[in-house]
Write a structure and sequence with these properties.
The chain has 285 residues and is mainly beta. It is built from two helices and 17 strands. The strands form four sheets. Strands 2-3-1-4-5 form a five-stranded parallel beta sheet, sandwiched between helices.
Length: 285
């Protein structure tokens, strides 16, 4: 039985790494006679000879092991979209966070990282590629700032402003962080479904409530689908409030804040201020 040839994945995580490395990597691979593949990952990948894959599609990591993967990442992160957010903004945040969390995961599994400080990359069995230009990190504020360095370590944090979340409406997609509480028990807001890597994560969730002489019974949740840390309480006095919740991510998954009104009320108002997240600890394997 003939052994399958070893292929190498060169994963370009962000726009800066793609601009600075792609041509040099293609030249290094082509010069040694390897098959060179780029573009999205196929459903099946069974090369007939050694192949170098140069792509920004993290789905290639399904086909090529971490030990044969090189990750190129300059920490050039997508900026926080300007308010008000849209479904497209939230979808893009979800997609980009998945790319980054997969890149972080394969590094922890043994992939080689080439960050913004790297000048040259030695690819086993392929050759040496030299960066074309100087690596640079964007200075813009990003809701994915926890991925400025890969993999994320305890102490990294990010701010998720109100317009990244989804609010009450017929489809629970659009709406406003200024919410009239009058009505039946219901979900008030949820999101933003940005992927977080394995670790213990704290969310500091901020909002203002005016129960208008009544009481606002609230449930605040932080976690991932079907697995939340929860705080429940009744607000009877108008003011600014903050709830801190910690939760463990035993595997990468989209993070979300969910706020519920747990009983019907006749009056009241809630204004969501957004939240900040921080990785507080690594989890032992």
């Amino acid at each position: 039985m003939t052994a399958r040839p070893l292929s190498t994945l060169l994963l370009l995580v962000d726009a800066s790494s793609a601009e600075q490395w792609r041509d040099a990597l293609i030249e290094a691979a082509a010069g040694d006679g390897f098959g060179v593949v780029s573009g999205p990952a196929p459903h099946m990948f069974e090369p007939q000879h050694p192949t170098v894959v140069i792509s920004d599609d993290v789905n290639w990591t399904v086909h090529i092991p971490a030990a044969r993967t090189h990750v190129f990442a300059d920490g050039d992160l997508p900026a926080t979209p300007s308010a008000p957010g849209s479904f497209d903004d939230r979808h893009e945040l979800h997609k980009e966070s998945r790319r980054l969390v997969v890149a972080a995961h394969v590094i922890t599994e043994g992939a080689t990282l080439h960050d913004r400080g790297s000048i040259a990359a030695e690819i086993d069995g392929v050759g040496i590629a030299k960066r074309l230009g100087q690596g640079a990190r964007s200075a813009v504020e990003s809701p994915l700032s926890i991925y400025a360095d890969l993999p994320p370590k305890p102490g990294v944090s990010a701010h998720w402003p109100p317009h990244l979340f989804s609010y009450q409406s017929e489809a629970f997609i659009d709406g406003s962080p200024d919410i009239d509480l009058t009505g039946r028990p219901r979900m008030l807001l949820h999101g933003p479904y940005a992927f977080l890597p394995t670790g213990r994560w704290r969310a500091d969730i901020r909002f203002a409530v005016d129960p208008e002489g009544g009481a606002a019974p609230l449930r605040i949740q932080w976690g991932k689908d079907g697995d939340f840390a929860t705080s429940e309480f009744r607000v009877v006095q108008a003011g600014e409030y903050s709830v801190s919740l910690e939760h463990d991510w035993n595997e990468p998954a989209p993070g979300q804040v969910v706020i519920w009104l747990t009983e019907a009320v006749f009056r009241g108002h809630l204004i969501y201020r957004g939240c900040s997240i921080e990785m507080t600890a690594e989890l032992n394997a």
